[in-house]
Amino acid sequence: MVPLYDDERHDYLLANEKMHIIQSPTVFSFSLDAVLLAHFAYVPIKKGNILDLCTGNGVIPLLLSQRTNASIIGVEIQERIIDMAMRNVTLNELGEQISMVQGDLKEMQAEFGHSKFDVVTCNPPYFRTPEKTEHNKNEFLTIARHEVYCTLEDVVKACKLHVRPGGKVAMVHRPGRLVDIIALFRKYRLEPKRIQFVSPKQGRDANMLLIEGTRDGKADLTILPPLFIYHDDNTYTKEAEDIIYGRQ
């Protein structure tokens, strides 16, 4: 039996009652952005190597394992949260496919070398935090949501370092950082190939974006149709429901 600590709980991983995930409201719980990224990202089906940076409690590797037989490694800087991720791997008996590494994404070259992964995914901290007064009072949430230990440039640089030439990098972020993301992707030779904007409802501004780039790729960007999460009556759209409940 995999132990639970403090206010942790076992949840089903979406609608898949065969998979479970350990979460905590005060330490880490996954959100919709991770689910959308795991669905959006290209993955090799039968074999390959995938790296997930800022892995949190390992939700993206767990979700990707349902789409691929590739080897998956998650990296997380927070000791308390990587312990949760490791227990999630054990809980779902995925130790032969998924491994977790505690560490700073800026310092993983000694661990992984460079250009070793077919795909790199990342759900990074979204918010710049110039002043400590802007930090969340919960340190775990501050580190997960704000650029305390890594900036957007640190993330993009790490993605480029570890993805092979021709490999894919997929990221979820806020639309307000799109120009920064594209500029940094091109600075580090990750050519943007696909972008999808996500809105709560039709007629509402996008509050999330998904972007995928190819290392050393040629310029050719596709803007995918927008994804709407809710109808006006606050029920899920079919597209969102299919993703959230693993029907696609």
From TrEMBL:
Q: Which domain of life is it from?
A: Bacteria
Q: What are the Methyltransferase small domain coordinates in residue numbering?
A: 20-146
Q: Which SUPFAM superfamilies match?
A: S-adenosyl-L-methionine-dependent methyltransferases (SSF53335)
Name listed for the protein in its UniProt record: tRNA1(Val) A37 N6-methylase TrmN6
> What organism does the UniProt record list as the source?
Virgibacillus subterraneus
